[in-house]
Amino acid sequence: MTAETPDQQRPVRLIGAWFAPAVGASVLGFYGSFQLQEETGELIRHSFFNDVAPPAAPYLFLAALTGLLVFGFLRHATLWMVGQPTAQSVLREIPHRMRNAVRLGLAQDKVRRDRYAGIMHWCIFSSIIVLTFVTAQVAVHDDFGIEFLKGDYLNFFTFYGDLFGLVGLVGVGMALARRYFSDFHRIRWDERFEDHLIILGLGLVLLTGFIVEALRIAAEPSVFADDAGMLTLTEDAAPFAFISYPIARFIELFEMPGSQVEGAHFVSWWSHVTLSFSWLGLIVFTRLDHIFFAPINAFLLRTDSPGRLSRIPNLEEREIFGVGYIQDFSWKQLFELDACVRCGRCTEVCPANLAGQPLSPMHLIQDLKAHLADVGPAVQRVGHEGGDTRAVSPVAMVGDVIKDETLWACRTCGACVQECPVMIEHVPTIVDMRRYLVMDEARLPATAQGALENLETRGHPWRGTSLERTTWMEGLGDVPLFDGNQDYLYWVGCSGALVERNLPITKAVFKLLRESGASFGVLGQEETCNGDPARRLGNEYLYQILAEQLVMTFKEKNVQRVITNCPHCFNTFKNEYPQFDGHFEVLHHTEFLSGALRDGSLRATHPVGEDVAYHDSCYLGRINGVYDAPRQIVEMVPGANLVEMRRNMSKGLCCGAGGGNMWQEEVGERRVNHVRSEEAVRTGAQQVISNCPFCIQMFEDGVPAVQPEEEGRIRPFDIAELLERAVFGPGGGEAKEPAAAAAVSDGDRET
Amino acid sequence: MHFVVCAKQIPDPETPPSAFKIDPQKNEVIPAQGIAPVLSQFDSIAAEAALRLKEAAGDSKITVISMGAESAQAAIKQVLAMGADEGLLLNDPAFTKGDPHTTAKVLTAAVQKLGDVDAVFCGRQAADWDWGQTGLLMAEGLGWPSAIIAKGVALDGQQLSVERVLEDGYETAQAPLPAVVTVSNEFGEPRYPKLQQIMQAARKTVTTWTAADLGLDAAEVGEAGSRLRLEKLFIPEKEGKVELMEGDTATEKAQALVKALQGAKVL
Amino acid sequence: MASNALVVGELAEGELNATTLELIGAASRLGASNITVALLGGGASGAASKAFEGGATKVLTSDDASYDEFRGDQWVAAVQNAVEQASPDVILLAQSHVGRELAPRLAFRLDTGAAMDCLNVEDDGGAVKATRSVYGGNAMATYSFVTSPAIVTVRAKAQDPLEPNAGASGETGELPGASDSRTTIAGREIVEAAGLQLQDASIVVSGGRGLGAPEGFQVVEELAKALGADRAAVGASRAACDLGWYPPSQQVGLTGKVVTPDLYIAVAISGASQHMAGCSGAKTIVAINKDPEANIFQFARYGIVGDYKEMVPALTEAIKAAK
């Protein structure tokens, strides 16, 4: 077994580092153009026949392109407008949104998460920006009589024009290599004709650009040979046109008459201009529209936590609860569909897809986009006529276009959202459709139904558990109940109290809290589910009932600060309870415990001489950004050697249980927990450590499946269990080795 | 068509064994703290059967009847949310601590008072006392044919066709309406209510009838009218002397078990 | 003391079934001096001798083959006739598809009470007391009868038959032929498990929801095969059957089959009381479960804590090796 080298993925915060050179060069160019305008240099740029060719042509093209863009935008906009208003106004928090537009849109922070694609995309992007400036300057110089392309500046101008032409070609080359010469790549998962058109077209535009420039250079001597005192191309200037000049010299080898060179220049100029404008026209008809849509979507991106699902207001007065028809999405959700570039990054990281289960976020978005194009215009028309827009679509969006099992396979782990370079938020869209399935259609997998019914009748999702909320307290001596005077409420959660495997975790957290001297209490029998599974499974109604009740309980008991051992509880309390006027300071146990270790109130003195692989749970890591606290704990455990898994931190892979899949039967080739367990096994570590009871249960189930040999098998533990051993010594004071226990409570109730 | 579903609210059968307690003086189950009573699961399956017949027959009405305390409203609402049309609570202090005989007597009186009922659906048994008698006693009282332990029902005009579970297979029994059917878990999972129906159910008012409304005398119902007397309710002792197999690997544990079974002459 | 007992017997392919003999045993232990057995269906009079050998004092029969296919209304009329002939203080039936339907109907017609699915019937100073499992097996309840006769259905194998008294005989009488029924039986489908019947198996290996997936039953079936196709059968918990992982005909538990094998191996079954009601009569219970706190270990004689995916194949191998 060989350990893999992990890709450390600390968040990069260097805004704009990638495109600064391009913009910088262009700005310098403009600046230079005005500074140098006054100088009477011996060198000036000639465009020859442009002086005689109708200068109107490019402007007609430009006008046509502008018209086309406006038309295209309006055509899209009419489709978006069949959607509903957004829950939150997109005109609030403008500074935040502008920052997003710059950081995620212009600086393309997300694009860079794939290094190769980041370089490729920067090459193409910066080249297009710079060459647009270059072209604009030529237009100003030629057509407006402001002759500033001369002297030293012309040399500089020539240089960066050639440079970014080359940069663009490098980008195109990288794109071609990936599209045509790599193994089957995610960008070919949904390949279309336009993809070839875009990349080959861009290559042609850039190539013809060089040819035009080379022919122009080659034509200079023929036109101005007799014109004494106007030597335009000196040997001195040649190094600046470091690509065009060699080509010009190459053309000269053919010893064409001057008129033929001019003729060739004429033809190539027209080809270049026509190709360029045609290529820009692709913006309207192809995914090139992301040039505009990506930064706009970055502006529209939510400004609150990605861990928060929307609250449906006034549930009691509604008739429709989820999204079962395309027009029930918000216009922003419909806009997102158009922003998708089919890059496949979302699908590549999707845990369901990795396990061969029926969900590909990219295809989901594309299927919705196609459905919008199919029925959107008719919905729009019927809506205007005051007809029944629900009768328009001949197929059911949820069920036919998007299959039920696709929606249920989602783990809400947020990996797709995290990777999407154009800021599509797949998870809320999927949950909206789940809401339709559960609340409007009551169509859901039997096991999910069982979990929800159990939540309704018993206040926890663990159907058939034989444990009570207080079982974990046995053998711990006096367990203080929260009375409103302690600093913290220790929230045990359903999984921590009612699932056998997790009792040692709950006990460990409790003992560590007590050892740290913290003032805290628990709710014991009064705990009920906070509703997270209901919300993720799409039963917003049940969620709101549970959340409102618990907010009230917390307020009655004067709860200010909560410590949870479950990242799902943590996320709901922290990010979602404010929707119900529940504002509490929420800590995950890893945050509290790492603080206690730092300030010395906990001391990890007993060595644990083992390699431990750390698994980031989605809801603590990617969604809430807590990457460091748990790693600090591992680092402070003497003898424990932290090993990173190949996918870690924001690129961590879900254990398979998220999004209510803890209570579902998986459909597909493999189980997600087997995939992730394999990755844990591959680290060669002796323990895999996580911070979430679901993850632990998933590893307990998955590890034996992928590592049948019992000897030397990697053992899953919560980080609190690891710390418990380091603080209290082996055996945790009195506790036995936490046994490998049930992954899923296998209660067989006959009722 | 008018179908009646009988629904019973019972202490949660999924109460953890450690929380299941009995008051030996009163011969009663002590409700476990924080564990709410639930609709007996066989009754929700009976409701599912009635709903499927209603959907097939069209133009039908389902009345859900529960005999119990005010809290049984929750059980009624649950069936209303599934799609039943009207709720009826039979609540009278005189009804308490009865046996199947008196329960059936009260329910029968209610069905007779409703008058136009075509079929009654009950769970095969309630998951608290596990009698399995009420449906049959109602059939006798009403003088209707019955089919118990159904896994499927279909209606062909006035002829009810019921697929029944037997010990060694299934049989399809046919009987003319009106009839009583008791439904078993083999029928399938009860539906999950749509939210809109939950809200409509919440707004519906449940009619309450007392013994007097049904024309029943207090002496013939509840404990007074019972044919059976509960002498003793107790929790059986469990031996709990399991011998766990030791071993570092699965193979060692398995070999230990085979040895133990051979030693005990079981293998 | 119950002096007159009526046992409603059942025939299996013309032969008296084992449960009828158990009921006669129970009637005898109640102190009944007259034990009348009612037998209905083809071969009834021929089966009488076996009833006498089992301890019956009188046998009432009708050989009408219409009774072979059980219809409640036909049977209840015949049994009412038997009641008139035998004037019983106690009527015993099996908790079978016959007893389940007849007992309540008879109770209504005789204006008395019926206690269903009893594990024990005893005579307590002249009064019949019946003990049965309630609350899904969490509790037991003992009932007495306010009215007479007492009607009791008894769970199969909960009572022992008497030692057969070879050559014994007694009085015989007749029961009327079948009357018309309002119910017609349109079809009957017998679902035979491949191989051995659950109730006849001396070893039952059962799987539960903890198997996680229907494929889990493959390893369970392999274990049963290794134990011997002639004596081991595969069962399932209700949760597993309801999930569609195994045929409902193989369900062991309160609402499924009640089995009393020599060895019952529960794989990934938590041991809810409703399931245990169907297998607690097994002589030896072995539990294989990941969860050391699972309820099943309270009933089991031997246990293995571990993942069934490893433990069961290992056990299969160990059993093959031991042969």
Characterization of this structure:
- The complex is a heterotrimer of chains A (751), B (267) and C (323).
- Chain A folds into 3 domains: 20-42 and 91-299, Fumarate Reductase Cytochrome B subunit, CATH 1.20.950; 344-384 and 395-443, no CATH class; 449-728, no CATH class.
- Chain A has 27 helices and 8 strands.
- Chain A has helices at residues 20-35, 56-80, 94-106, 115-143, 151-181, 193-224, 244-252, 258-285, 290-300, 331-339, 345-349, 351-354, 361-384, 404-408, 415-419, 426-440, 446-458, 494-498, 503-515, 532-537, 540-556, 567-576, 589-598, 628-636, 672-682, 693-706, 719-728; strands at 488-491, 520-521, 561-564, 585-588, 611-614, 641-644, 687-690, 715-718.
- In chain A, strands 2-1-3-4 form a 4-stranded parallel sheet, sandwiched between helices.
- By secondary structure, chain B is α/β, with parallel strands linked by helices.
- Chain B has 2 domains: 2-225, Rossmann fold, CATH 3.40.50.620; 240-267.
- Chain B is 29% helix and 28% strand.
- Chain B has 7 helices and 15 strands.
- In chain B, a hairpin with a 2-residue loop joins strand 10 and strand 11 (169-176).
- In chain B, helix 2 crosses helix 5 (195-203) and helix 3 (100-114) packs across helix 4.
- With 323 residues, chain C is α/β, with parallel strands linked by helices.
- Chain C has 2 domains: 4-174, Rossmann fold (3-Layer(aba) Sandwich), CATH 3.40.50.620; 198-322, TPP-binding domain (Rossmann fold, 3-Layer(aba) Sandwich), CATH 3.40.50.
- Helices cover 28% and strands 29% of the residues of chain C.
- Chain C has helices at 18-29, 44-54, 72-86, 97-109, 216-227, 238-242, 273-276, 296-299, 308-322, and strands at 4-8, 11-12, 15-16, 34-40, 58-62, 90-94, 114-124, 127-134, 139-145, 150-154, 171-174, 184-190, 203-207, 232-236, 263-267, 284-289, 302-305.
- Chain C has a 9-stranded mixed sheet with strand order 9-8-7-10-6-1-4-5-11, with helices on both faces. Chain C has a 5-stranded parallel sheet with strand order 14-13-15-16-17.
- In chain C, helix 3 (72-86) packs across helix 4.
- The radius of gyration of chain C is 21 Å and the shape is elongated.
- The interface between B and C is large, with 81 and 82 residues.
- Strand 11 (169-176) of chain B pairs antiparallel with strand 12 (184-190) of chain C.
